[in-house]
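Help! Submission page says 'invalid entity' but I think these are all valid:
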Amino acid sequence: MSSYIPVIGLEVHAELLTKSKVFCTCSAEFGGSQNSRCCPVCSGMPGTLPVINQTAVEYAVRAGFAMGSDINKFSVFDRKNYFYPDLPKAYQISQLNLPLCINGSVPIEYEEDGVKKTKNIRINRIHLEEDAGKLVHDDLNGVSLADYNRCGVPLIEIVTEPDMSSAAEAKAFVEKVALLLQYAGVCDCRMEQGSIRADVNVSIMKPTDTEYGTRAEMKNLNSIKAIGRAIDFEIYRQGKLLDMGKKVVQETRRFDDNRGETKAMRSKENAHDYRYFPEPDILQVNFTDEQLDAIKASLPEMPDARTERYISSFGLSENDARILVGSKILSDFFDDSVKAYDNPRSVCNFINGELMRRINLGEIALEALPFDAQQFAKLVQMADTEKVSKNDAKDIFREMSEKGGDPEEIARAKGLLITNDTGKALAVIDEVLAANEKAVAQYKSGDAKVFGFIMGQCTKALKGVCTPKAIKEELEKKLASL
Amino acid sequence: MRKDGSFEMDLASMTITGLRSMLDKREISAPELADAYLERIAAVDDKLESFITVTAENAKKAADSAQEMINKGEASPLCGIPLAIKDNICTDGIKTTCASRMLENFVPPYNATVMEKLEAEGAVMLGKASMDEFAMGGSTQTSAFKKTKNPYDLGCVPGGSSGGSAAAVSASLCAAALGSDTGGSIRQPASFCGVTGLKPTYGRVSRYGLVAFASSLDQIGPIARSAEDCALILNAIAGFDPHDGTSSRNAVPDFTAGVGMGVKGIKIALPKEFYAEGIDDDVRKAVLDAADAYKAMGAELVDCSMPSLRYAVAAYYLISSAEASSNLSRYDGIKFGHRSEEGESFNDLISHSRSEGFGDEVKRRILLGNYALSSGYYDAYYGKAMALKQKIREEYEEIFSRCDVILTPTAPTAAYGINENISDPAKMYQADICTVTVNIASLPAISTPCGYTAKGMPIGMSVIGRKWDEVSVIRTADAFERDFTRQPAKI
């Protein structure tokens, strides 16, 4: 196959996390029994009217800011007309000429051929629209049933410029978008529930070409893996066509996940004419600078800024920083812990070690930790300051993971708390030395090896009272004085 | 009711104000009043065909409740007043057909906001009035069910699309009615039937529950025996509605505020294009005579011009049909509307369902609207129509910078014979010339009778006001009505 440059653009659809739908007050939550979450408005009953959900508008703007977009202070909704049984009004309320957000940019980091790379992907626009329902095909009875629960769930469509040139870039982009949406708090980004899905446009061109090739579009890809496979297959398919001197046809293709192939669905000639026009039932959306500033100010620190802070201010490795930042809950937990105990590297090590181990084992979930960041930080601090031994800290953490609770209380109850009580230490050392006269005599006669045995006996008897360091000091003093 | 039946004649001249006084003085009870109208409907409506559905049982129940409110001394202005409701306004549990086979069996599970408001007032709905199919037409002859006649001459049309509502008021089958107006559908039938019809400012009355024809133009309004009655009904139905994002949060005045105040000092504009060729001589004369009457009452007449009027009908049909093509797409036989027995595939099924369910006029507008919005044609048609909309608005603004209200004929002619125009859609559309600009500019306007043709058919004139200034149009119409003797329909 000749060498071609793939040109890839994405349209990412993300369902917004609003409580209610975008044009009515029905619950926008995923699931529910069929047609239990719809009303006359979202099922398109004659005479009903949409009323815009301001939270959905605000969330779309948050997403825009998270992706470095400009916000249109004046934005308009349009109707996109087409017949399909999952769309009871036979039009989708969307945005065409004046979307809420334009001209964004998303930096991605990815690995290709073992090399770490970065790139900026430009965002053409982000607009707000309503989701459609779902069809359930009952092959046994030969009927299709419509479930309108999803009708009217708010959706943003993030449209990129054709800035990507490999599956790795596209995958990194979707992952980054999901992360940014998570930080903005506007989407749960659960691909398996369809809360984020992508349409992928792929064309290829020769390095000497000055114009893009003809593109094919793959709709509704709902996993990162599928996005990568569909792109790889499409680059291969189009390359083969061009190698054979054939042409790529502009069309919509379906990706078959089982076969790993794309199949023709609809050619350009049969493409819908959506007959867009301004939605007369919804007034234009207007923002003042103050409103936009307030929305922008309400956003948390974004992932790239956090990674940078963790590396430069906290001295974490890039790898550690990225692991923490890769989940907003984890990163928030880390920041809260550092606030309680200002030792970022130590906190990070405990998170990436013990905490992640328990999470990966499925013993605890990040979303529902049985302890809070302050308790966690206290444990890390207790281990660092030798209030408990490193090994005991792990045991204490296991108990916190199972039952929750304050680490100091757990340590005390289990007798693991090191008090460095010198008086008690001396008394115990005396007892140990009395019980091991033979060993003491050996030591005094110059057999230094036996010190380890005596030390072990003392440590055992002083567990939870003194640190090994303190015991050693006292023991050495005592032995020297004999 | 009196034993000799003479009461029926009383009903014909009874305004809401008059009925209110009779009800409050216990000269008649709400159930008696409802019964009187229901009997009249039973006696006359076979000939007139103004109602698609008569809701006698519901009316009786509503009248009983109204009487309880009256007895408790809690009667609001419309309490116990029997009304007809255009059949494109959703009524909970009662068929709402839009006079279309498509919605022949559609029973809404909810009330339009105006119905909620009327119910709260204790108004009594007698039934659902006929109309042109999906409010598309000016004759009520495109109704799939009741092709309403004109009470002044059963051989003539009542106008439309709110022809059932206007004819029912005119023939005293109800005290007043609700209609809807997209391009003249309240004012023109009011004119043809010799009654008063008010199209409020766009956004004044909630459209929630009004089955949409052209969403940016549709507005619900009253048809009644007088401008004052229209004001009383508007008082009850106006106001912001959280279910309608296009309804206004503007303060709602008392719309009767200008009733009885006369027109002394009011500046009335007469745009010359509204009196030009294409307007029947007797119509022009009647409206100009009315203008002279206003002058005699102390109003000042002002000449003015609206050059864009010649393009208004084209702009209106492009905008309204474009919106209609989208609004009516939901009637595909899947979730809503008649479902055909035929059709193998999804596309086949909707094609058959729509072919069977819609009448010719509706199909014509859907085709026109889809064409105007098609890629490659949008700029030439829909785009130009939107530009004209802006131009028309500017011309109105210019006129209103110099005048308080505008006086025009409501229609170029009086009511014409059934089937006279219906075979020629272009001629039918042109007849909307006097009314459509009001909707395009979102203005309030009222039509009231100002004369009769030689054959005795009513002629209507329209008073158009500034945005949100219904008070002035009602005041102006009311001033004329006080000195004008109406010739009642003889049915």
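Support: the input was valid. A stray whitespace character was the problem, and the output above is from the cleaned input. The radius of gyration of chain A is 31 Å.
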